[in-house]
Amino acid sequence: MTNDKMQGFMFDNMDIRGVHLRLDQGVKTLLDQQDYPAPVASLLAQMLIVACLLSAKLKLRGRLSVQIRGDGPLKWVMAECRQLSDDPEQPFRVKGMAQVNEPIAPNATLSEMVADGRLIITIEPDQGQRYQGVVMVDQPTLAQCIESYFYQSEQLPTHIQLVSTDQGAAGFMLQRLPQTEAEEHQADLDWELVHALSATLTEHELAQLPADQVLHRLFHEQQVKVFAPRAVLQECDCSRQRCGGAITSLGKTAADEILQEQEAIVIDCQFCNAHYSFDKVDCHVLFEQGVIADKEPQAVH
Ligand SMILES: [Zn+2]
To answer: Do 32 and 10 meet the contact criterion of CB atoms below 8 Å apart?
Structure first.
């Protein structure tokens, strides 16, 4: 069991919702598998948090990904959150990775890592329309970029705080819900109050405290209703099945050409380092019978 979980909440008499998320074990496991420069590891951890925070308000079966692409030494970084069903008891599943092109200084800022970066948010329901939104990475921090994304795309005032340490990562998000004009003045005052209280949460508190203590610390004078917490697992979705599909779509001729030069077609998952190997017999069965010989992927690392 881990403490990696997401806690949604709302206020009894204010149109404001929020989410708190801790992701310690998941972030550590993911970062242990790769050797990223410190600022890239920190950004990737925060991207995982963002992918979950944004998924919290979507009731969908499918995936939401957050990507940053730019012309700097960090070519791209992405995190994805999957919901396998719309059952709120089901955990969120996350994965993420980064592609580094050139050396990155230990204290590099976001804009130094991703010159002229774009932040791309993609929502892919299992059924239905795919959605994509893009904003420039023109703010000093990822949290501010996401606030700016919501302001530009949905005109929803949003407050986001993210923190990542050697021990894991955490995030806190508040969002104002749309109002009618008549309610707007009161809603402005409510937002100002809740936003001002939230701004007193320190990085240290966010990094250390569980959700109930954060909510008590900030809102003990407000009426807050919490939803059932939801587990978050760091888990790749690669499989021998998927790799077989990739080889099939390559075509038999191309696969045979590779097998003339080497003993097996080997596919390494870039997310989790799992290693899938299809030798001549596996490929024969795959193309002739459309069946994937069931083998466990070889150990990570
Ligand atoms: Zn994988």
So the answer is: no
What are the tens digits of pLDDT across the range 193-231?
Answer: 999 999 999 999 999 999 999 999 999 999 999 999 999
pLDDT tens for each residue of 63-93: 999 999 999 999 999 999 999 887 778 899 9
Whole-number Å distance, alpha carbon 192 to ligand 1 midpoint, is: 43
Cα 177 to averaged position of ligand 1 atoms, centre (Å): 37
Measured in Å, residue 234 CA sits from the centre of ligand 1 at 11
| pLDDT score recorded for residue 182 | 67
Separation of CA 253 and ligand 1 centre (Å): 26
Q: What is the pTM of this model?
A: 0.89
Residue 61's alpha-carbon distances to 55, 64, 79, 90, in angstroms, are: 10, 10, 17, 11
CATH 3.55.30.10 fits 5-234, yes or no: yes
Distance from residue 224's CA to the centre of ligand 1 (Å): 39
Q: What is the 3-state secondary structure (H, E, C) of 93-109?
A: EEEEEEEECCCCCCCCC
- Distance from the CA of 258 to the center of ligand 1, in angstroms? 22
Q: Give the E-state strand segments of 188-290 in sequence order.
A: 224-226, 230-234, 264-268, 275-279
Strand 92-100 to 16-23 pairing: unpaired
- CATH 3.90.1280.10: which residues of the chain? 240-289
Query: Ligand 1 centroid to 276 CA: how many Å?
Result: 10
Intervals of CATH 3.55.30.10 along the chain: 5-234
Residue 48 pLDDT greater than 80, yes or no? yes
CATH fold, domain 240-289, is CBS domain Like (3.90.1280)
